[in-house]
Amino acid sequence: MPRRHMQRVALILMLFVLLMNGRHGGNTPPATFDSLSVQARALDIADSALSKDYGPLRLTAAWQLSGSHAAFGGFSSLFVKEDGALVALNDTGELFGFRVKGPQGAGFVEPLPRIGIEQSWPSWEWDSESMQRDPATGRIWVGFELLQRICRYAPDFKALEGCVTPRAMLRWPVTGSIESLVRFADGRFLAISEMGTNAAGAHDVLLWQGDPVDPATPPPVHLGYRPPTGYRPTDALWLGGDRLLVLNRRLTLADGFTTRLTVVTLPRLEEGAVLTGRVIATFAPPGLADNFEAMALSREKGRPVLWVASDDNHLFLQRSLLLRFDLPADWVSDRPAP
């Protein structure tokens, strides 16, 4: 490995360890509502180094993103609205709306709604790492790591409707907690811990039979997830039926950031069930590799599209990447989860 690359990877590793064990973001409150201009620089995906190891996924576009607002970047979760606009949430409680295709227009940046006594909290406390949206109602759920909290928001984040700190999450490491949040069509929710494990060594998974923020929902049951060896889960996406995608990250001195995307065939979702994935795509140097933490699903002309975004941790050594893949048409269905 070239000496320059080794030095860069070593510096990234050192900074990432500091971030994982300390504060994220700054000491000021999250950004206020503002306009946003996003530059999406298209990357040349014809380069063979950028097009390999994606298995059944077909890379159709890739961009390096930069924004006019100082808070831009740090993406930890993502969804695509019905009109094609993207909404990304970073790890300091800030939302970004923008487009990379079609009419560009002006984007926006805004903070997540907060209760009055928390308005002045510094942005590092708002470690928002996961997000799910119900397309039928427009409601959104967000998972916060440091706070060990799940909050529900009204459509378009117009208001905070409620929050819960599940007792079952309190034993998860606060900097390796609720990185993945999944909502099934029947209203059940599933959360995967990035670093919290059970007695068998699997990553702890919580399954609620309904909205976790609703006091009437019973306490969750425990399942397990086994990622590829050496990797940790950073996001999950339900495709319908028994198919779940899980994004898994690793950072090493030898390779820097590498990511493996696994597809899980869901067993019957009940206490003690273990989720195990099959690797279908790998993101590693010299191809498109960074700290990938976010996935979203959309449809274009009836075909399923997978979006994958990276968290640059607001570090000059990293990039905010956005990748677009065509998924096999039969991978997405309207069938219920097991």
Descriptors:
338 residues; mainly beta; 8-stranded mixed β-sheet; 2 helices
Q: Strands of the largest sheet, in order across it? A: 12-13-14-15-19-18-17-16
The end-to-end span amounts to: 46 Å
Largest sheet: 8 strands, mixed
Q: Report the total helices.
A: 2
The secondary-structure element order is HEEHEEEEEEEEEEEEEEEEEEEE
Query: What is the residue-mean pLDDT, rounded to a whole number?
Result: 90
Low-confidence stretches: none
Count of β-strands: 22
Structural class: mainly beta
Strand content bin: 35-45%
**What level of helicity do the residues show?**
under 10%
Task: Tell me the Rg in angstroms.
Answer: 19 Å
Shape: globular
Please tell me about this protein's structure.
The structure is a single chain. The chain has 338 residues and is mostly beta strands. Helices cover 7% and strands 44% of the residues. The protein contains two helices and 22 strands. It has helices at 3-20, 48-51; strands at residues 34-36, 38-42, 58-67, 75-80, 86-90, 94-98, 107-111, 128-133, 140-144, 149-153, 160-164, 178-183, 189-197, 203-208, 221-226, 232-240, 243-252, 256-265, 274-283, 292-300, 303-310, 320-326. The strands form four sheets. Strands 12-13-14-15-19-18-17-16 form an eight-stranded mixed sheet. A five-stranded antiparallel sheet has the order 1-7-6-5-4, with no helix packed on it. It has a five-stranded antiparallel sheet with strand order 2-3-22-21-20, with no helix packed on it. A hairpin with a 3-residue loop joins strand 5 and strand 6 (94-98). The model has no long low-confidence stretch (mean pLDDT 90).
